[in-house]
Design goal:
Strand content: under 5%
Number of strands: 0
Distance between the termini: 42 Å
Structural class: mainly alpha
Shape: flat
Radius of gyration: 16 Å
C-alpha cells in the first residue's frame, strides 16, 4: 500500500479487521461453554495484545529498547498482567 510518501506499507487495518472478525467468531463459540465470569474478556485482551505485538513489526516504527517499539513494550506489559490466565490456558490445553 502506498500512502503517497513513497514508503510501501502493509495494509495493517485490513489485517486487523480480519483478525477481529476471526476472534469474534472464536469467542462467540466459547460463550456457550461454562466459563468463569470475565474470562472471555481476558481471552480477548490476551489475543489482541499478542496480535498487536506481532503486527507492529510490519509498521515503519522507531524501535527503542531491545528492538521493540513503545506499543510493543506496552503489549508485553499487558500480557505480563495476564500471565496467570495464560498459564492456566496452557495447562488446561493438555
Amino acid at each position: 500500500m502506498n500512502l503517497g510518501d513513497g514508503i510501501k506499507r502493509h495494509s495493517i487495518v485490513l489485517y486487523e479487521l480480519f483478525f477481529l472478525v476471526f476472534l469474534f467468531l472464536f469467542l462467540w463459540k466459547l460463550k456457550d461453554k461454562e466459563i468463569k465470569s470475565g474470562l472471555l474478556f481476558q481471552y480477548f485482551m490476551i489475543c489482541y495484545f499478542a496480535f498487536r505485538f506481532f503486527i507492529e513489526f510490519l509498521k515503519p516504527n522507531a524501535f527503542f529498547i531491545l528492538g521493540l517499539s513503545s506499543i510493543q513494550i506496552l503489549c508485553l506489559i499487558c500480557l505480563l498482567y495476564y500471565y496467570k490466565t495464560i498459564l492456566n490456558l496452557f495447562q488446561n490445553a493438555r
